[in-house]
Amino acid sequence: MKFSSVFLSLAVISTAGSAFELNDPKKNDTHNLVWTGHLSPDTDSMTAAIAAAYIYGGTAVMPQETNPESRFVLEYCQAEAPRQLDDFTDKQVGLVDFNQKTQLHKTIDPGSITAIIDHHAIGGSPVNLAQVAAIDIRPWGSAATIAADHAASLNIILPKQVACTTLAGILSDTVVLQSATTTQYDRDYAVKLAEQAGISDFHSFGEQMLIAKSDLSKTDAATILTMDYKTFEYAGKKVGIGVAETLTAQQLTDRKDEFITAMQVYKKENNLDHLFFSVTDTKNKQANLLWIDEADAAVAQAAFQGQNADGWLQLKNVTSRKRQIGPAIQRAVEAGN
Ligand SMILES: [Mn+2]
Fold first, then answer.
1. At the top level of CATH, which class does the domain 2-209 belong to?
2. How confident is the chain (337 residues) per 10-residue block, as mean pLDDT?
3. Residue 153 CA to ligand 1 centre (angstroms)
4. How far is the CA of 193 from the centre of ligand 1 (A)?
């Protein structure tokens, strides 16, 4: 596979001081090793960290508070919650589910990153990959799927709770195997992990996750904006994209004024060049995009063709930030909009 050769060549040219082997865990020094996902952690980040810590040793941690969907998953799977780590000083760090500097906890020393397990393209502003001892990036539906594949190829059977959380990572990122990013690997590992976890109907588990994610009626707009949020660097511009995936989109689109206020504050505080927020309707497979000023409007107009509905730009068949919203905004920003 094309991606494996990228992985191998990166591993071979690595200049890292301390070695780390994804193919031979016994050799690894796991002293002070922690596994973490990106800021505004989502379920894939959390569950891939849990799986990686089980497979390779070290501890799964969270760089910020977990979201309601992830808390539901921990409860459902009867799994232990990874602890929130506020200071990564002196830790050896394994990254899961991201490779961008803009999504790194601020206390992580880039030189301390020993491994990356991810499923995102290496664009924008990646961490200094030449320093990282082991990198495995594949274009699969979730980082959790890649972790499941590591366990399988190392003949490691994940315990029930970890199989369950890993399954949740796959179901979350692929919107229960429905998103455009879903691969056959995701489908196969979902079936296999459900068996290992003793879950007879994983679609029902996935539906319950979507419901847990959707209930945001008591959550304030500023929290929702950054609950599933990423900052990117496109053509030197800082671009923030927040997403709220929900089965009950209107509950959120009705709160437009609250979101506009929250976005104005957030854009200013974080010195962003552009900020977008999507209420992603996973039931009707449609993104509802919001922005706050003329500069953002110019980017959105260049990036998308959609229908205006009470200030939200409706984008039919758009559900993925990674595959659809992000790349379209990236092209528009890079084209000078
Ligand atoms: Mn992911």
1. alpha beta
2. 42 55 92 96 98 98 96 97 97 97 96 97 92 96 98 98 98 95 98 98 97 90 96 96 96 97 98 98 96 97 95 96 96 94
3. 21
4. 17
